[in-house]
UniProtKB/TrEMBL annotation:
CDD domains: SDR_c5. This is Oxidoreductase. Belongs to the short-chain dehydrogenases/reductases (SDR) family. It comes from Knufia obscura. Keywords: NADP, Oxidoreductase.
């Protein structure tokens, strides 16, 4: 019997997600006799969106964990045949691991380039674009996701170092990345420009809360920058998209509490936070719309959340 090494199913992204879950959790759901056993390659295609992504280059900052990592997988799953991913963060080993897991899952139709880059270092960002290999230079989608929070201190007790690192990463880093990539987006399409800039803000940028003054200020700055940019680019075919998550369980709280896992876990006690995949799906959905459709602004909560600090917690 001839065995096939890949099974392609053409369907919508929702059905694709369902099929993927089903087939990975219950391989007997299909007749495995027809599939080569090692490795089982299952590729599920989401048709219209998949076609829109074909041949594109997507650059994600902060792709070594959390939302950025999930976004890399979600783009790869949405267009497994012909996509280029540039994944950046400081932890290069984690990026290489993400790259190899993506190729293991979707095959080598997705070309992944892991690049070590600290967005808070202006000189690194400046050199980064010039050093990209030619085939990855024309970035179609920039996901400005790298970001972090440090501590819960209130003024006047906030460490100067924490203030600096949050602004340098969340604000200056995002602005520098945008300025590094934008010139090539502007040149395309006979000068009309093309491309997507997707900025990851936060509910914190809309609603300042006690103990988060600096982080909230950085995300408010991201919001202002994003809205100015959309207005500045009004005559161009460049989409500027804001994604503002509420509570998502990632390494975010671990970083906030300097690696203290019990403090980080307490943030989610009695709650069912969003997963990074939930945000990744929204990012990829926004990027996957028809070129004339701009998902300009989104606010995404888990079901128990209604504001930055209004959370229903089940008693344990
Ligand atoms: N989790 C939440 O509840 C939540 C809510 C709203 C918004 N957000 C936003 O979502 C984004 C992603 O956060 P996450 O929740 O996925 O947290 P995460 O798991 O801690 O991921 C943060 C990512 O940013 C990268 N990063 C941090 N500093 C960097 C730097 N200087 N240069 C390059 N990369 C850097 C980290 O990689 P390296 O350490 O390898 O550099 C990591 O990949 C952030 O902008 C965050 O503010 C998160």
């Amino acid at each position: 019997m001839t065995k096939v090494s890949a099974l392609y199913i053409e369907c919508s992204s929702d059905v694709a997600a369902y099929a993927r879950d089903l087939l990975y959790s219950d391989p007997t759901a299909i007749n495995l006799n027809y599939l080569s056993d090692n490795p089982l390659q299952l590729r599920v295609l989401a048709s219209a969106m998949s076609k829109r992504f074909e041949g594109k280059t997507v650059l994600i900052t902060g792709a070594s964990s959390g939302i950025g990592r999930s976004t890399a997988f979600e783009f790869a799953r949405s267009c497994p045949k012909n996509l280029k991913l540039v994944l950046t963060a400081r932890r290069i080993d984690s990026l290489k691991q993400v790259a190899s897991e993506i190729n293991k899952e979707v095959g080598d139709g997705v070309r992944v380039l892991p690049v070590q880059l600290d967005v808070s270092k202006a000189d690194e960002v400046r050199n980064f674009v010039g050093q990209l290999p030619d085939e990855f230079k024309e970035v179609d989608v920039l996901v400005n996701n790298a970001g972090l929070v440090k501590g819960v201190a209130k003024a006047p007790e906030i460490a100067e170092e924490d203030v600096d690192v949050m602004f340098a990463t969340n604000v200056t880093g995002l602005i520098n990345m945008t300025q590094a990539i934008l010139p090539s987006m502007l040149k395309r399409n006979n000068g009309d420009g093309s491309g997507d800039i997707i900025n990851i803000g936060s509910i914190a940028g809309r609603e300042p809360y006690i103990g988060g003054s600096i982080y909230c200020a950085t995300k408010a700055a991201v919001r202002s920058f994003t809205e100015s940019l959309r207005k500045e680019l009004i005559a161009k075919r460049i989409r500027v998209i804001a994604i503002d998550p509420g509570q998502v369980e990632t390494e975010f709280s671990l970083v906030r509490f300097g690696g203290n896992k019990s403090k980080a876990d307490a943030v989610y006690a009695g709650c069912e936070p969003l997963t990074p995949d939930d945000i990744a799906e929204t990012i990829v959905f926004a990027a996957g719309r028809r070129e004339n459709v701009v998902i300009a602004d989104t606010l995404i909560f888990p079901n128990h959340q209604a504001a930055a600090t209004i959370m229903h917690r089940k008693s344990t």
